[in-house]
């Protein structure tokens, strides 16, 4: 069993409109945009990152906004819900805020003993806020009061036809089942806590998900550094998983593999971080390009629609 996984690192989804996506996550949810770059594999598309003040692992939601993307279809084989941690007693304020903004799918509930507020993102993605104790500091310079602001991820929920394979993988990665409600099981790293939880919803009759705007592209888990990543990669290869070599994503190193049931997993390093090419005070302001795409800057700046109003 691995002991190098520290929790979630980031979760990356697909969107249709970069400006609408940015307005939702920064203007409505109050996260900080910590990086504005491009999809390294498709540089004519943005890659935007939202999180806490510095983009700490476990706080960062990222998007690839494809301007002509059709909406994804929910089903099995995807990360079907992303939940964020908020302070106890804050959901009434959040419900008013989201309702006044016309957000779809608002629904209060309870999950594993915690109060929850489910809602939809701008492309129909399933999101939720979960009340819990969370010592992480929020981004305090956005439009949401620090008293209720999002602290980071609570969990991600994988929707699969069967759970045996993914449960075995999660156990190997250091997670242990610590609760079950109906078709949903919860798996946490030792000590549990926000950002260290993966939920599995088993739906044997669900149709296969079709990826598009509003779909999660991949779920990334955090390790401290490249040495820890190498140890995790070697162990997973020994277990028979087909994993990419380490790939330099400028702000972290990444390896990717397909988990049982079809969800794309990533293992990403906590270093070097989002301030490697921008001062912390100005994170997410300028368009940053990887060295291999810097020669495309003039064309990309003409092609990419503005993210900010």
TrEMBL record:
Record-linked PROSITE patterns: VOC
TM annotation in the entry: none
Residue ranges of domain VOC in the record: 7-132, 151-270
A Pfam family reported for this protein in Swiss-Prot or TrEMBL: Glyoxalase
Annotated InterPro entries: Extradiol_RC_dioxygenase (IPR052537), Glyas_Bleomycin-R_OHBP_Dase (IPR029068), Glyas_Fos-R_dOase_dom (IPR004360), VOC_core (IPR037523)
PANTHER family per the UniProt record, alphabetical: RING-CLEAVING DIOXYGENASE MHQE-RELATED
Name of this protein: Glyoxalase family protein
């Amino acid at each position: 069993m691995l002991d190098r996984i520290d929790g979630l690192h980031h979760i990356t989804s697909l969107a249709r409109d970069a400006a609408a996506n940015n307005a939702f996550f920064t203007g409505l949810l109050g996260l900080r945009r910590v990086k504005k770059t491009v999809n390294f594999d498709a540089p004519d598309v943005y890659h935007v990152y939202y999180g806490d003040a510095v983009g700490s692992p476990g706080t960062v939601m990222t998007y690839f906004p494809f301007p002509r993307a059709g909406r994804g279809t929910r089903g099995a084989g995807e990360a079907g819900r992303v939940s964020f941690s908020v302070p106890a007693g804050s959901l009434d304020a959040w419900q008013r805020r989201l309702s006044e903004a016309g957000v779809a799918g608002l629904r209060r509930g309870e999950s594993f003993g915690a109060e929850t507020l489910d809602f939809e993102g701008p492309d129909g993605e399933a999101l939720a806020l979960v009340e819990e104790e969370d010592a992480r500091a929020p981004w305090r310079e956005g439009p949401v009061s620090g008293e209720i602001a999002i602290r980071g991820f609570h969990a991600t929920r994988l929707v699969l036809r069967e759970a045996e394979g993914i449960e075995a993988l999660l156990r190997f990665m250091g997670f242990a089942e610590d609760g079950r409600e109906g078709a949903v099981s919860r798996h946490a790293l030792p000590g549990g806590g926000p950002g260290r939880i993966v939920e599995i919803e088993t739906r044997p009759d669900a149709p296969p998900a079709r990826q598009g705007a509003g779909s999660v592209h991949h779920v990334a888990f955090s390790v401290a550094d490249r040495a820890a990543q190498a140890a995790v990669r070697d162990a997973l290869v020994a277990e028979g998983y087909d994993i990419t070599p380490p790939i330099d994503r400028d702000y972290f190193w990444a390896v990717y593999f397909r988990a049982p049931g079809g969800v794309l997993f990533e293992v990403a390093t906590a270093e070097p971080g989002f301030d490697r090419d921008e001062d912390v005070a100005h994170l997410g302001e300028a368009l940053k390009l990887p060295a291999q795409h810097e020669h495309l800057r003039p064309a990309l700046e003409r092609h990419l629609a503005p993210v900010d109003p």
